[in-house]
Specification:
elongated; Oxidized Rhodanese, domain 1; alpha+beta; 2 domains; 5 helices; four-stranded parallel beta sheet; Lipocalin; 40% strand; single chain
Length: 287
């Protein structure tokens, strides 16, 4: 087997390097904005011959690195053909392999890091803002999401796009009234996961779960389902993100809906409310 050149630069992420890398390589991640600064600190001599490798010949990290290194003044840069995957297929030795035990348990929601952004539309405009997550948890079993419960503090409704404080307060009062979400009667909304279906064959940036459950709003409970991307954090916790479209009228918030009222004119309000949900858990399970 051919001997590996030195110095040899692993261009992939730190997580990838910890899991597996070529012997003797140094990890300088090309995805970092400080990539060139770190290369200069490690190899201050621009004449040193550098060899870089990525995942395989189909991914673009080596081409990006060669371009950046050339522009920075490095005169001798070559690419290891086939990258990490070709080396493994040839039977080459691999270092790393940090063992990661499948995680199980109940992970509490970190309410300071989690968020819900909302957006609603009327005939001529749109409004957007936030509402805070309350207490909640997700359940993991052998590294897979299997359940959970989330609450939303409807009393924290906030509008972010109306600078006039009087008009802003007027809209929030309208949203909190019986016209929409009846916040005095129902200060919390709640979602309980009934099924969580892993999605196979998706890219790392695509939703990897289809989640089903029951959503309670205005005291009414209806089934919903949506796609979500769930990822493990470096501290051992998890972050889940999803974009939802909810038809508010299904929960009795019918103000301005063309399904129920006629000749609304400028008072028409779109039935759909769009939510961007980001749920961050604490790093260790409680049970």
């Amino acid at each position: 087997m051919a001997e590996l050149p030195s110095p040899l630069i692993d261009l992939l992420s730190a997580e990838s390097y910890a899991g597996e890398h070529l012997p003797g390589s140094v990890n300088l991640c090309v995805y970092e904005t400080a990539f060139i600064d770190k290369v200069r600190a490690t190899f201050p001599d621009f004449a040193v011959p550098l060899t870089v490798y990525g995942l395989n010949d189909s991914t673009l990290e080596t081409g990006v690195a060669v371009k950046k290194l050339g522009a920075a003044g490095y005169r001798q840069v070559q690419v290891l053909p086939g990258g990490l995957e070709a080396w493994k297929l040839s039977g080459g030795k691999i270092e790393g392999g940090v063992a990661v035990d499948p995680v199980s348990g109940r992970y509490e929601v970190d309410t300071t890091m989690s968020m819900v952004e909302w957006m609603g539309r009327n005939l001529f405009n749109r409004h957007l803002g936030t509402v805070e997550l309350g207490s909640g948890h997700i359940l993991m079993n052998d590294g897979k999401l299997v359940g959970g419960r989330l609450s939303i503090a409807m009393t924290t409704l906030h509008c972010a796009d109306i600078p006039d404080p009087v008009l802003n307060a007027h809209l929030i009062a309208h949203l909190k009234s019986d016209d929409f979400f009846s916040v005095d009667k129902y200060p919390r909304a709640e979602f309980v996961i009934s099924a969580s279906i892993p999605q196979s064959g998706v890219r790392a940036d695509e939703p990897n779960y289809r989640i089903k459950g029951d959503f309670t709003l205005r005291g009414s409970t209806k089934p919903i389902d949506f796609s979500a991307l769930v990822a493990k954090e470096a501290d051992g916790g998890f972050t889940a993100q999803a974009i939802l479209e909810l038809d508010r009228t299904l929960w009795g918030a019918i103000y301005g809906s063309a399904k129920f009222f006629g000749r609304l004119g400028q008072h028409l309000v779109n039935d759909l409310v769009y939510l961007h949900l980001k749920v961050v858990t604490k790093g260790r399970p409680t049970v």
